[in-house]
Every structure is written in C-alpha cells, then in structure tokens.
Design goal:
By secondary structure, the protein is an alpha+beta fold. It is 22% helix and 33% strand.
C-alpha cells in the first residue's frame, strides 16, 4: 500500500492552550479514516491543520512526499490539493447546483468543466437538479452537492467535518454506504470527524480515537472494538460494561463469581498491572453477549444481581443490573450499570442470577 498522508509530532497551541500534542499518524492512499473523540479533543483542529487553515506550532505534515507544513515553512491552503466539506456544507445559496460544483475548477477549459460536472451529477444522482438552487434541495441532496464540489478538483485528500450530523437518521446509513462507494470508486483518501462510532463502522477503513489532543489508538474499527488498548478507549466507545474484579496472577474475584484466568495470566493480566504474588482492583470489560441471565432463583442459581433499569429495544429488553446490597461484601467490587439484553421480562428490583461466559478477558486499570 502507498502511504499518502504522514503526520509527525504535530503539536498545536492556541491561546496558550495545547490543542494537539505530539501526534503521529499515517494513512494509505484510498483509505477512509474516522476520527472520534469527545468535543474539544482536537479532531476538527487536526483537519484544519491538514487543510492549511490552522498553523501548527511544531511537527510535519506530508502528502505524497510533498511537505505541506513543517517547522520552517507552510504551503498555502489553496495549493495543498486538499478538499474539505464543512458541517454546514458551506454551499453558495446564490449559485445553482452545477455552478456550485464548477466553483473549484474554473481554471479548466469549458469543455473539461462540463465533462467533470456532468460526470459528478450523474454519479451523485443530481442531474435532474443541476439548475436548482440550494434551498430547493433536501439535506441529503445538499450533501451530495458538497461532495461533488469537493471532488471536482480531484483532490489528493478529502476532509469531512461531521458530514452526516445534519442528515435525517432514517437516510443516514443509506447515504453513508452510497458515499463510501463513491469515494472508493474515485480511489479518494478521506478523513472524517464524527462523535458516532457507528458511523465509523459503516463508513471507515480505519479509526483513530482521540482525547485531549492525543491519539489514543489507531487501527481498523473491528480491531479497536475487540482489542481496545486502554480503559479510556473502551469507555469512550462504550464497548461494554465495567465489572470491578480483585485480580491476581491466578484468578479474578468478582461479585458474579470467581474467574479463572491462570492459563492466560501472562497475556490477560500483565505484570505491570498486577505484580507477581499480589492482587489489585481492576475493571473487566464485559459485553452484553458475554453474560448469561437466569431469572429463576433456586439452590443452583443463586441471586447475585438486581434489575436497576428497563427499556425496550429491537434486541429485546435492555436491562442495567446492579450488585446486591450486602454489608459483608467487598464494596469496592460493587457495580450498578451492568448492561444486558434478554427476551425474558423482568421487573425493577427483581433479583437474578448472572454468569460470565468464558471468553478472552480484558482487564483495565481505570486510570489508564
């Protein structure tokens, strides 16, 4: 694979506040990257730095071996061959659809402009609206115009700032699939910002999780979801619930029972988390499908949790469970928001028995 974008030790300080800190990132040609993170973590600032709208304090940005920005000089935004689609699309209301698309390719011959515009109108299903004004279009059609205008100059890299936030939820998934297909058809490398991890799974090849100006993890979305590298990543992406456990090199004790992890201790309970011969309070990441629920309490199925919250979803009943109140238990192991789906109808405060199915346990220190 050919590397298209390389970012090295990129730092940005605005109004004496560090917005990006020593960020390293590379992206292959044709890949689509989804940037996720809480508001204010630096996602949009990173896009602006790549586009040339924000000047880095330190570091280097390279596209196709052309240095766009380093500690010595910076290429002007209009010469970077980077397209950008803003959250509000920034279309020109006084221009028609085809005039909006033509805006960035005025230096081409009239014949070349016409060919490029007609091709994009056809691909994006906008031919019937070519002479319409922006206010006459739906939100999805406006987004297609913004995509067409950005692709018309054939940029090496396309940047999208929360491109699906203004689209009706009913149409969002369909539009994401359609635009992903379009970008792949043009072999366009793209980076988009979102707060919604589900958009990344539908739209992106790679995911980058950011927090406080730093890159926490960068990989394929499925890899990050199966192997988050920290409590912070797993918690932000809401990959499951947290079950406190007292962990040693031979096992883990929780209020849902003893977890035998000795056979995989070296992999799952690293020595830096739990020194040999000691135990430590860690948090186990538990996904709903890794829990078995029994509503009938008897001598074989002892109650160990209680229903705290109930909602109805397309997956059945969604429950949050909390641990039972017992003065004799280790209160540091108590939990109050263990997420579980079931077809069994339960009642608030109903006691149940829950077991964790064997799987690859992932323990984290919640300070990590």
């Amino acid at each position: 694979m050919t590397v298209l974008l390389t970012i090295e030790q990129l730092s940005i300080e605005l109004q004496e506040k560090v917005v990006l800190s020593a960020l390293d990132l590379s992206l292959n040609k044709g890949d689509i990257l989804g940037l996720v993170g809480a508001s204010g973590c630096g996602k949009t600032t990173l896009l602006n730095a790549i586009a040339g709208f924000t000047k880095p304090s330190h570091g280097k940005i390279v596209i196709n071996e052309l240095v766009l920005s380093d500690n010595k000089a910076s290429v002007a935004a209009e010469k970077r061959q980077v397209g950008m689609i803003f959250q509000d699309y920034a279309l020109f209301p006084h221009l028609t659809v085809k005039e909006n698309i033509a805006f960035g390719i005025s230096k081409l011959s009239k014949e070349a402009q016409t060919h490029q515009i007609n091709n994009l109108l056809s691909i994006l299903k906008l031919t019937a609206h070519s002479d319409s004004y922006i206010h006459q279009l739906s939100g999805g059609q406006q987004q297609r115009v913004a995509i067409a205008r950005a692709l018309a100059p054939q940029p090496k890299l396309l940047l999208l700032d929360e491109p699906f936030s203004n689209i009706d939820a009913r149409l969002r998934n369909e539009l994401m699939v359609e635009i992903r297909h379009l970008l792949k058809q043009f072999d366009t490398t793209a980076i988009f910002v979102t707060h919604n991890k589900d958009e990344v799974f539908t739209f992106a090849d790679k995911m980058a999780v950011m927090a406080e100006g730093k890159l926490l993890q960068f990989d394929a979305p499925n890899v990050i979801c199966q192997q988050p590298n920290s409590y912070q990543v797993a918690d932000f992406l809401q990959l499951g619930s947290w079950l406190p456990c007292r962990v040693s090199s031979t096992g883990a004790q929780s209020l849902l029972g003893q977890l035998e992890v000795a056979s995989l201790a070296s992999e799952l309970v690293p020595s830096e988390l739990v020194p040999s011969g000691q135990s430590k309070l860690l948090h186990l990441l538990v996904k709903p499908q890794q829990l078995n629920l029994t509503a009938k309490i008897d001598d074989e199925n002892i109650a160990n949790a209680q229903v705290e919250y109930i909602s109805v979803t397309e997956q059945g009943f969604h429950y949050y469970l909390r641990s039972l109140t017992d003065a004799a238990i280790d209160q540091s192991l108590a939990f109050n928001k263990l997420s579980l789906y079931s077809d069994v109808a339960l009642a608030i405060n109903q006691q149940v028995s829950v077991q964790i199915t064997p799987h690859k346990f992932l323990f984290f220190n919640n300070n990590s």
